[in-house]
Automatic annotation (TrEMBL):
Pfam families: SAICAR_synt (PF01259). PROSITE patterns: SAICAR_SYNTHETASE_1, SAICAR_SYNTHETASE_2. This is Phosphoribosylaminoimidazole-succinocarboxamide synthase. It is an enzyme of class 6 (ligase). It comes from Caproiciproducens galactitolivorans. GO terms for molecular function: ATP binding; phosphoribosylaminoimidazolesuccinocarboxamide synthase activity. Belongs to the SAICAR synthetase family. InterPro entries: SAICAR_synt/ADE2_N, SAICAR_synt_PurC, SAICAR_synth, SAICAR_synthetase, SAICAR_synthetase_CS. GO terms for biological process: 'de novo' IMP biosynthetic process; cobalamin biosynthetic process.
Length: 234
């Protein structure tokens, strides 16, 4: 498959057209941003980690019945994915209080939630990805009721699969963000699942093994990403 023109350049990825209109090539960068682009930096080797980890997890999810955009890993940083129309929502799944939820509800980070929390944010950098509910989504036409129901069910199933998997390598999945796309097959999982988009805590020490090390200037960012890769066996 031939890599053609650049379609989109985001904060962490470039997306290229290919000579087949049904597919794109994603190219993962080492650039890191936080707080809606206000903090910028580089995490050496992050592109490789995020590409390989996402592909590994997407393959695992496919085997368990979740349809994803993953097609084929081309190189350390490049992957062929199905071309989709991205649903303009960021879906956040939370198992324990952390980050913006801990702040918003005045909870200590690490407080267990009595049940899984699902949040939707409108994907819009200029607005700072504001949180929206089902009424906003329907009223603004971001997605249909059927799509919201499908996205919610898929997100909760993905949480169960990932929680169990990460626990098997001594990592607690605190929360994570998902994005979905529309294609001929309906709604499929898109974007990435990586230490950029998840909170991973060591089960025993609660050490942070994710992008919070960059966001909060904790140091050892590259080492944390490498540790998750090592535990997964990648
Ligand atoms: O910042 P907040 O606590 O709302 O983040 C919840 C989860 O969603 C975290 O795992 C974070 O990495 C992820 N997230 C993301 N991209 C965003 C916002 C949050 O990957 N734009």
């Amino acid at each position: 498959m031939k890599k053609c023109e650049l379609l989109y350049e985001g904060k962490a990825k470039k997306v290229y057209a290919t000579d087949d209109e049904n597919y794109c090539i994603v190219d993962y960068k080492d650039d890191a941003t936080a707080f809606n682009g206000q903090k910028k930096g580089t995490i050496c080797g992050k592109g490789v980690v995020n590409n390989k980890m996402s592909n590994y997890l997407f393959k695992m999810l496919e085997e368990k019945g979740i349809k994803t955009h993953f097609v084929e890993e081309l190189s350390d940083r490049e992957t062929v994915v199905k071309k989709v129309e991205i649903v303009p929502l960021e879906v956040i799944v939370r198992n324990k209080a952390a980050g913006s939820l801990a702040t918003r509800l005045g909870m200590e980070e690490g407080t267990p939630m009595k049940s899984t929390v699902l949040e939707f944010c409108y994907k819009n950098d200029d607005l700072g990805d504001p949180m929206v509910n089902e009424y906003h989504i329907l009223a603004a036409g971001f997605a249909t009721k059927e799509e919201i129901d499908q996205i919610s069910a898929m997100s909760l199933k993905i949480n169960e699969i990932l929680k169990e998997f990460f626990l098997s390598v001594n990592i607690e999945l605190i929360d994570f963000k998902l994005e979905f796309g529309r294609c001929a097959d309906g709604i499929i999982l898109a974007d990435e699942i990586s230490p950029d988009t998840c909170r991973f805590w060591d089960v025993n020490t609660h050490q942070k093994l994710d992008k919070d090390r960059f966001r909060r200037d904790l140091g050892g960012v590259e080492e944390a990403y490498a540790e998750v890769m090592k535990r997964i066996g990648l």
